[in-house]
Design brief:
The protein is built from 16 helices and no strands. The chain is globular and about 70 Å long. It has a single domain, classed as Amino acid/polyamine transporter I, CATH 1.20.1740.10. It has about 450 residues and is mainly alpha-helical. It is about 75% helix and about 0% strand. α6 packs across α16 and α8 runs antiparallel to α11. The longest helix has about 45 residues.
Length: about 450
């Protein structure tokens, strides 16, 4: 009898596992790295350059580098949790399994706000930019074209997204490398080799102020927003236990080093930051100074390309988050856990996000959308850092103090400081969203009397 029972039980488990929808593991470390870079965008420091320079009183390079170290702490927590739970869902999966299923739902709900807003922000910015360049076409048309294009590419499959990422990186990289080369040439012609090296961007005793640097660093940390999108592809990765951690850390390192170089050269090219015509678009002035109108136009163009890439990766990230929550039956499973038999991607989730992007771009202004993004992003970051502490330090009982407690604790505190400094409108809008998620969770679990269903991903 017993000899017959074991094969039967094994067969039953195999059949049950087969019924659980799976994403195919097709992405390499290089694919994950490119995906993360496009999500963060190599041009991210350009958008914060002017304001970070003013806020830090001329020490924007320091803000980028300090923020890099701080965000690396959170990146390590994300990567280590992805190695333990290599599944779609990111913060939702990590907090739900590392802390509590109900807290996991709330972390996923917060991150859902983040990812829903990213494509909307990109669509708004891109549509406004293109509308100014191509007059006579209504804003709603450009929003529709933008949202429709990213939705079509993501419906085509994750491989198409990966290939598109490579093209986007090539376009952005060409213009940014051109800026670096032309900036070096400009400085060399002006002052020789000595013009390329200066300690003033790192420390100017006449203007240095620690309080101002701290405030500016919190602002500059937004440059790294989106690196966690890599972990939403843990179930698409060939080797998630190794590659997701490496990819998240490498994305942060690249963003900090490459961004720091851009900002460093920018400060040397234009040392008097009080004379920019428009501080929010200060990098355009730098581009015109070192490369003329051609580089200026190219820099404007790559920002549109960057918005496209960020929206593309943001949409696929939230679709996979919805897939993870739908597969766990936290959201309606028939809709959100559906995978296309042909493309093996969450078709319905992608279409829903595409519609939200289009409608949201028509009714939400850019400033509010950006503030709502910060609310969800850093709330999810805090949850993952706390989950990492419990997962690696307290639960096994053999945790190491520095690696398993101090590192994620520092990541949590830094994210808490940024979240706490958000503007009141962001806290109100984000608080409403969070309250709706809390209510939904209470109803769905009958007043927390039952835990949200959580699927075991060990064998996925």
């Amino acid at each position: 009898m017993s000899s017959d029972a074991n094969p039967t039980q094994t067969e039953a488990r195999t059949v049950a596992a087969a019924r659980v929808p799976h994403l195919r593991r097709v992405l390499s470390l290089w694919d994950l790295f490119l995906y993360g870079i496009v999500s963060v965008t190599p041009s991210a420091p350009i958008t914060v350059f002017g304001l970070a320079l003013v806020k830090s009183r001329g020490h924007a390079v320091d803000t980028i580098l300090i923020a890099m170290v701080a965000m690396l702490l959170t990146a390590v927590s994300y990567g280590r949790m992805a190695a333990v739970y290599p599944s779609a869902g990111s913060a939702y999966a990590y907090v739900g399994r590392g802390l509590n299923p109900h807290l996991g739902f709330l972390a996923g709900w917060a991150m859902l706000l983040d990812y829903l807003v990213i494509p909307t922000i990109c669509a708004i910015f891109a549509a406004l930019t293109i509308q100014r360049a191509v007059t006579g076409v209504p804003y709603v048309v450009w929003v529709g074209v933008f949202a429709g294009t990213i939705t079509f590419l993501n419906l085509w499959g994750i491989r198409a997204t990966a290939r598109t990422n490579q093209v986007l990186i090539a376009v952005m990289g060409t213009v940014l490398v051109a800026f670096i080369v032309l900036a070096v040439r400009y400085l060399f012609r002006a002052s020789g080799w000595t013009g390329l090296f200066s300690t003033l961007p790192f420390y100017n005793p006449q203007t240095f102020d620690f309080g101002a640097l701290r405030t500016a660093t919190a602002f500059a940390a937004l440059t790294y927003g989106g690196f966690d999108a890599v972990t939403t592809l843990a179930e698409d990765a060939k080797n998630p236990r190794r590659d997701v951690l490496l990819a998240t850390v490498l994305v942060c390192l690249f963003t900090g080093i490459f961004g720091g170089l851009l900002v460093y050269l920018g400060q040397l090219v234009w040392p008097d930051y009080h004379t920019f015509a428009n501080i929010e678009t200060a990098f355009y002035d730098l581009s015109r100074r070192v490369g003329g109108s051609l580089l200026f136009q190219g820099m404007v163009g790559i920002l549109v390309v960057a918005m496209f890439g960020s929206a593309l990766t943001g949409q696929v990230g939230v679709a996979r988050l919805l897939f993870g929550m739908g597969r766990d039956n936290v959201l309606p499973r028939k809709v959100f856990a559906y995978l296309s038999p042909k493309r093996n991607n969450p078709t319905y989730s992608i279409l829903i996000v595409g519609m939200i992007t289009f409608v949201g771009s028509l009714f939400i202004n850019f400033e509010l959308a950006a503030e709502m993004l910060n609310f969800g992003m850093f709330l999810a970051f805090m949850g993952v850092n706390l989950a990492a502490i419990r997962q690696f330090y307290f639960v096994p009982g053999r945790g190491r103090l520095l690696r398993d407690a101090v590192v994620p604790a520092l990541g949590f505190l830094f994210c808490l400081g940024i979240w706490w400094s958000l503007a009141t409108p962001a806290k109100i809008a984000g608080g409403i969203w969070f309250a709706l998620g809390l209510i939904y969770n209470v109803v769905q679990t009958r007043g927390w009397r039952k835990a949200p269903p959580m699927i075991d991903f060990t064998d996925l």
